[in-house]
């Protein structure tokens, strides 16, 4: 399970680096900061992904606090969201070293 979490963390980190690179290239081309929101990045993946995002944002999807939080996350820069996901997955898959050392009982 730990290996799966670390791999998912690596995949999220790779997505964060790629989206950050695209944003930086667009920022240099436009001579101003360009940050792609997560919802816009998902919409670029195709109509199925866009339908999935819109289905999560419907009013019957859950309580109002869930919808507010979901809307806030979708408006954040995509690279930042992927970085947070990568960090959380890495923390979940992290194995702590024993406090007493290698040869403790």
Structure notes:
By secondary structure, the protein is mainly alpha-helical. About 70% of the residues lie in helices and about 0% in strands. The chain is built from five helices and no strands. Helix 1 packs antiparallel against helix 5. The model has no long low-confidence stretch (mean pLDDT about 85).
Strand-pairing-aware structural class: mainly alpha
Number of discrete helical segments:
5
Helix content: 55-70%
Sketch the topology as an H/E string, one letter per element.
HHHHH
Q: What's the average pLDDT?
A: 86
Share of β-strand residues? under 5%
Main features:
mainly alpha, 105 residues, 5 helices, 0% strand
In short:
Helix content is 69%, strand content 0%.
List the helices and strands and how they pair.
Blueprint: H1 2-30, H2 38-43, H3 47-56, H4 64-75, H5 78-92
Helix pairs in contact: 1-5
């Amino acid at each position: 399970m730990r290996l799966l979490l670390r791999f998912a963390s690596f995949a999220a980190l790779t997505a964060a680096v790629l989206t950050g690179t695209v944003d930086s290239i667009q920022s240099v081309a436009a001579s101003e900061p360009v940050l792609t929101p997560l919802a816009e990045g998902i919409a670029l993946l195709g109509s199925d992904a866009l339908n999935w995002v819109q289905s999560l944002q419907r009013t019957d999807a859950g309580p109002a606090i869930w919808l507010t939080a979901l809307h806030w996350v979708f408006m954040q820069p995509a690279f930042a969201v992927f970085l947070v996901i990568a960090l959380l997955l890495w923390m979940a898959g992290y194995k702590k070293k024993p406090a007493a050392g290698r040869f403790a009982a």
